Amino acid sequence: MPLVSRRKPTRAVRVGPIQIGGGAPIAVQSMAATRTQDIEATVRQVELIQAAGADLVRIAVDSKKDVEALAEVRARTAATLSVDLQENYRLVSLVAPHVDKVRYNPGHLYHHEREKPVHDKVAFIAEQAVKHDVALRVGVNCGSVDPAMTTRFGDDDVGAMVESALEHTRLLDDLGFTRFVVSLKDSDWRKVVEGNRRFSAQRPDVPLHLGVTEAGMPPDGIIKTRVAFEQLVAEGIGDTIRVSLTLPFERKGEEVTAGREILEDIANGRFRSVPASLDHGLNIISCPSCSRVENEAFIELAQDVREMAQYAKDRDVTIAIMGCRVNGPGETDDADIGLWCGPLGVNLKRGEALVGHFAYDEVLDRTRLLLDEVLAGQGSATASS
């Protein structure tokens, strides 16, 4: 039996000049890390990512000023562009003329115009996609699922994620819109594997975008992502990928390089065993540096936290460092220690509880004290020196 199964026969989805699914080569994506309104920097970043070999580059849009900047970026690059809608889904009518694909998060639809049925919101997005000849991605994250799904599934967060994706595929099907892909992501590679397997079993026709969100910094972030991709791609699951890493802006092309290396290894049967220690010891989760980051100091802080916490490397502790208000509130809740980074300071959390808001130049020491408390609570803690 071959090491790598044949790709699942998903339908073809056109995204500008490229095709996702339908037997096309697996497309590699990345996301611009610069502020969208910094047009010069964003154009430079898009070109850097494309030069690294990306088939598709994603940009975040969160306001009408971002849309104005996006239009200028579009005019200055021939790259295939995707846009990441945040909570204001109505921006799709403004951004769709400038891009080839739009990604929306079903969980975020809940927060805007709560009195309006989800069906109507999805219908508006699909209508704009048809009008402007763009594809869609239904991007579901475990950490930002619609609260109704969370209530329904309780502790089965993977089940909530999968059902959210299935619900939106049904909504789009009912609207007669088929030009979409789906992603099911989490910072835990095991949940990524389980979620994509479960979804693919029920909707084998839908192309899947694979990724471990908030994978962290290299090399750990690459390892987590590789383990997930090796299992899924080897089973024929996955039509497009992204390696999400916390990197300085100038190094964002490394996401593309890492993705292509992983795909090449899988295609050639070069699999790496899963280290026995992968699910044990210190676990640093940090979101990829992207244009939603509200203070670039987040990137250096993530690196500093990892270095500071090495004295706890053999302890089962999870520290999450998030760079924006989109990922920060919800996706630090499951960590022992969470740092939700804002424009001027950092919200330090222990589990779901807020410890306090601290300046960037003081939060590292506060985090060390909190880590000592967590270790002490686990028993037989080794105090930091």
- From the spread of the alpha carbons, the general shape counts as globular
The CATH homology group name of the largest domain: Dihydropteroate synthase-like
Number of domains: 2
**Biggest sheet layout:** 8 strands, parallel, barrel
- Could you please say which CATH topology of the largest domain applies here? TIM Barrel
Task: Estimate the helix proportion, in percent.
Answer: 25-40%
Our Rg estimate from Cα atoms comes to: 20 Å
Low-confidence stretches: 380-385
**What is the SS-derived class?**
alpha/beta
CATH class designation of the largest domain? Alpha Beta
CATH architecture of the largest domain: Alpha-Beta Barrel
**Element pattern in H and E:** EEEHEHEHEHHEHHEHEHEHEHEHEEEH
Question: How many β-strand stretches?
Answer: 15
Q: Roughly how many Å apart are the termini? A: 53 Å
Report mean pLDDT, rounded to a whole number: 91
| Strand order, largest beta sheet | 3-4-5-6-7-8-9-10
Please, how many helices? 13
Approximate strand percentage: 15-25%
Question: How would you sum up this structure, described in words?
Answer:
- This protein is 39% helix and 19% strand.
- β8, α8 and β9 form a beta-alpha-beta unit.
- The termini are far apart.
- The chain has 2 domains: 255 residues, TIM Barrel (Alpha-Beta Barrel), CATH 3.20.20; 86 residues, Sulfite Reductase Hemoprotein, domain 1, CATH 3.30.413.10.
- The C terminus is likely disordered.
- It has 13 helices and 15 strands.
- With 385 residues, the chain is of the alpha/beta class.
- The radius of gyration is 20 Å and the shape is globular.
- The strands form 3 sheets. It has an 8-stranded parallel barrel, surrounded by 6 helices. Strands 11-12-13-14-15 form a 5-stranded mixed sheet.
